[in-house]
Here is the input.
Amino acid sequence: MAKFNKLKQAQKLYVQENKTLGEIGMELDLSRRTLFYWKKQYDWDKRKFEYEHEKDAFSQELLELVRKMMRKLNNDLDKNSHTNQSEIYSFMNILKNIPLLKEYEASIAPSKPKQQNFLTPEQVREIEREVLGME
Here is the structure.
């Protein structure tokens, strides 16, 4: 049973935390031979690719949601129509948490530089000032 737990831990470290087999071996006290066998047997590279794809898809969907919300709020402001407070509140909460999401993504995959697809904290503050009229 202990070996099964180590298999699951090793897989998580490889797939989700982007650790090398050497690092995993040292951390879990496993031989490289065992890790190479598990990696091949359980197709860790495919799982890693799928995990990265899902993570990227989530980030893209979140960014698209923010864009849609921003367009709607902008249209409401342009037409001087009433904007629901809950929409503004939701938009603000999402905006505030985007930098945290980026930090988290960077911390679990530091070796992979990616193109920035999210708003910087400065851009968030500018949107708050310009679009929402907040100071």
In short: The chain has six helices and no strands. The longest helix spans residues 44-78. The chain has a mean pLDDT of 83.
